[in-house]
Fold this protein.
Amino acid sequence: MGDHHPTGFTRWLYTTNHKDIGSMYLWFSFVMFLIGGAMAMVIRAELYQPGLQFVEPNFFNQMTTMHGLIMVFGAVMPSMVGLANWLIPMMIGAPDMALPRMNNWSFWILPFAFFLLLSSLFMEGGAPNFGWTFYAPLSTTFGPPSTDFFILGVHMMGISSIMGAINVIVTVFNMRAPGMTLMKMPLFVWTWLITAFLLIMVMPVLAGTVTMMLTDRHFGTAFFDAAGGGDPVMFQHIFWFFGHPEVYIMILPAFGVVSEIIPTFSRKKLFGYSSMVYATASIALLSFIVWAHHMFAVGMPVAGELFFMIATMLIAVPTGVKVFNWVATMWQGSLTFETPMLFSIAFVILFTIGGFSGVMLAMAPVDFQYHDTYFVVAHFHYVLFPGAIFGTTAAVYYWLPKWAGKMYNETAGKIHFWLSMIFVNLTFFPMHFSGLAGMPRRIPDYNMMFADFNMWASIGAFGLGLTQIYFLVIVLLTLKNGKKAEDKQWEGASGLEWDALPSPAPYHTFSTPPKVD
Amino acid sequence: MNEQMQQQNKKLILRLMAIIGGMFLFAFALIPLYNVFCDITGINGKTRGQALYQNVEIDKKRVVTIEFLTNINRGMPWAFGSKVKSMEVHPGELNEVIFYAKNPSKSEIIGQSVPSVSPGEAALYLNKTECFCFDQQKLMAGEEVEMPMKFYIDADLPEDITRLTLSYQLFNVTDAVNAAKGATK
């Protein structure tokens, strides 16, 4: 088969090609990343100094809410699905995803879902302002009218993610090339398979939660309304039953990415492949029994606090196995430090910092001090920005030569890395201190004593935001006039996409399955 | 894609759809599950329904202090409180407290009070034989009412609990009740 494909806009609208869809997912998530990032800039501009400078408190709340929703559902999750689309078929020797038409649908739902969500910013009463966790009764009794647009938007994103997950599972189970046994699959495919199972387990619970909100708001039910016999604390239980696995949905594919990249630039095989698989699976299983560590402060009995505290700290064990394996892979390897490797090493270090602050937060007695402070903000941004975002960035640098057949400028990539590394720490590290000192999250104004920490964080955030625009420039320049990439751009790389395919990967690949021994 | 593969895909998709449907229903099932769980363990501070006072042993040696708190939710104009703020009782003894409510507004309002006990584990041992919280109250404009509440504390109340608080939050449910009536008509 040749490299022929339709042209024009309808190519993208009607496409069932996993590479086209993967690219659309990645571009879409980058646009969302910039929109969500712009909201973060509004937040940081307001917090640059104590006092109210630029925005109304209610608009500030809308910004924190929308920033969270856009980044979680619009930037991180679609970028991971984009990587899955591009890479899984090439890595397991399949011609395409198993359900190509559904694949098209699951992408094209997203622009509409986010149109609904973003349009709420221009409505009377403003956008949702209750935080991305949309706790009842803030979101039910006191939510603005636009909450219904939020609910329908979340439903659509959920349907899109569920379809994406079904596609990944069916592809991995039924489309592997002969000889590609489960335990020979690249680790990225494994982490995505486990992520897909998490998605089909918890996205329906999220759908159920927002459905209950909808009926509470309009159809007289009282799931979360104490006056009618419901319970607002129940909302938190159900939400976090979705919410905790969700954080692993965002990070596991990034684990997979660095597990591909670190061996390449260490010129060694991944240390402890099977333990990596089992560790990922145990993280996923444990994620279902730890949800209440997000709500230690609601007044749980001591037995409950103990259970959720111990179960949460248990997650540090498989996570530690993974970090150990990444470090052991680098141990005595012949390391080189190209941009994807730099991002991956930073991932390991900074994600571990985020993991440690996670263990601190897991301890129920001290969590009462940290709860809803900037310490929590520092924690989850350390696992999400240098975790999920650095992981995706590393993946883009690593596979861009394969996708586009063109090589990015290594110096530019390194500058991008070092700026990101400096600014991400400048932004989020001071938040640990302001949080420990008691600065609450989601407030537009704060005590004078937090002024310096916030000024540093704001400067870091502006730098970090600009740096990501620089990333866009690098990618665009690469696509326009990057040097021709080699078929196997990285000498230490392994896997079907490097060994069996030219660069750029042709429009149709593996129409006849490759042999895997 | 050949026929056999399509069959295989179909089978797997159906199974995955079953999981998805099951998890969607599970979200709703969590509500009765939580309620059952909290009812058995009594960890939510929710008191149970109406209790019977029969053959209850009275422990004269022990004294437990019980405090009564009343709160009024947003949008509820009533005055609401208890005649006494706290009592010292013996476990097993049947006690009565009078609560009062007054509707000072110019319209008819339906109220519902929701009880909660602190510490939460004491909820299992607080038995009410008569309580206004079992029903809704409808008060005409300007109407005033006294509502008795009878309770006893189970003698099995853990030794370390010497003081407990029973709180009532009063909600205005007029709109919800009328909406439900409209829906059934």
In short: Chain A touches chain B at residues 98-99, 162, 166, 169-170, 173-175, 200-205, 207-209, 212, 220, 222-223, 226-229, 231, 233-234, 237-238, 241, 299-301, 303-304 (CB under 8 Å). DSSP finds 16 helices and two strands in chain A. The longest strand of chain A covers residues 406-407.
